[in-house]
Amino acid sequence: MIKSNFFKWLNKNHTLMVIAFILLIILTNTALYFFQLKPKKDDVQISAIQGIFDFKNIDFSKQSYTLLEGEVEFYWNQLLTPNDFNHNNELPEPSYINIPSAWDGHIENGHKVGPMGYGTYRFFIDVSEEGHYGLKIKEFESAYAIWIDSKP
Questions:
Q1: What is the model's pLDDT at position 23?
Q2: Across-strand partners of 48?
Q3: What count of other Cβ atoms lies within 10 Å of the Cβ of residue 53?
Q4: Which helix (H) or strand (E) holds 124?
Q5: N or C end of the chain: which has fewer CB within 10 A?
Q6: 3-class SS of residue 120
Q7: Cα(150)–Cα(47) distance, rounded to whole angstroms?
Q8: Residues 43-83 pLDDT 10s
């Protein structure tokens, strides 16, 4: 009888312990995710100016990442590819939009852009040395394509 009660207690508490362990893992991973995205106070942060991120003065051996923020080229209601820029096609002058932000409310040709539509963002990243670099993109509910060095 004592063994039977003990196993009932163990099964009941085992389930609670597993649930508590899973919650602990979720909370720990969430905390680590948010802490890693915050720049350290000594990190160099450079904003884009007219679509150019000049990261030549960042030592990526000491600073593992930087945020992409600043003004980038923006082409409203146009889905452009690298070929459109490489073949001297007649493209309108770009407007500039600050990232990260939504285009909703951006002024394009004297008109306020709404939340619905499509567009092309374009920017360049200059680094001091060749190597392997990466982009971390937060999830958002929209379709997109990314080209790096004219490759999808």
A1: 77
A2: 70
A3: 21
A4: strand 124-126
A5: N
A6: strand
A7: 23
A8: 677 899 999 999 888 888 888 778 889 999 999 999 999 98
CA atoms within 13 A on the CB side of 69: 9
Would you mind telling me the total number of residues written for the chain in this entry?
152
- CA atoms of 30 and 32, how far apart (whole Å): 5
Of the candidates 149, 119, 118, which has an alpha carbon nearest to the alpha carbon of residue 135?
Answer: 149
Alpha carbon 152 to its chain centroid, in Å, reads 17
Locate 83 and state its tokens.
């070929």
What is the percentage of the chain residues whose pLDDT exceeds 90?
20
Structure tokens given for 98: 């600050």
Distance of CA 141 to the CA centre of its chain: 13
Cα distances (angstroms) measured from residue 11 to each of 14, 22, 49, 140: 5, 17, 61, 41
Plot region of 149 (φ>0 → left; ψ -120 to 50 → alpha; else → beta): left
Hey, what are 108's tokens?
A: 């394009």
